[in-house]
Specification:
By secondary structure, this protein is an alpha+beta fold. The longest helix has about 30 residues. The protein has a 4-stranded antiparallel beta sheet with strand order 2-1-7-6, with no helix packed on it. The protein has a 3-stranded antiparallel beta sheet with strand order 3-4-5. The chain folds into 2 domains: about 30 residues; about 80 residues, N-utilization substance G protein NusG, insert domain (mini-chromosome maintenance (MCM) complex, domain 2), CATH 2.60.320.10.
Length: about 120
């Protein structure tokens, strides 16, 4: 009877060790993925710039006949200045991962500029 209990303990230990190794592998695989958000700037439908949302930056975007000043700060992206007539892009406010999905895009129609968030990846 003692022999059976010993075998059962060994099997249980191997099963627990296997489970721990599997969980460790999953943790390492998921931890290696880059989950950061990217700010994508398109002018006339072509990618003009791609910037990480987690690094503060300022970018002057030259669009159709004018400019937009993109600011990335504290995990948020917004247009701080533009020389378009309506300034709708400036009034739009900031976009971030917390922004509702249907509002995660800033556009400036006079300059053919579109700015949106995209999930990063390696």
């Amino acid at each position: 009877m003692a022999e059976k209990d010993k075998r059962r303990e060994i099997r249980l230990m191997l099963a627990l060790l296997s489970l721990v190794l599997i969980l460790l592998a999953v943790y390492l695989i998921l931890g290696m993925r880059d989950r950061g958000e990217l700010v994508v700037v398109e002018v006339r439908g072509k990618v003009y710039a791609t910037l990480p949302l987690d690094e503060d930056a300022t970018l002057r975007i030259e669009g159709d006949g004018g400019y937009n000043l993109l600011v990335i700060k504290d995990g948020r992206a917004f247009i701080s200045d533009a020389d378009c007539p309506g300034h709708d892009c400036v009034r739009h406010g900031a976009i971030s991962p917390d922004t509702p999905m249907n509002l995660r895009m800033i556009s400036c129609l006079p300059h053919s500029v579109v700015i949106y968030l995209k999930e990063g990846g390696k």
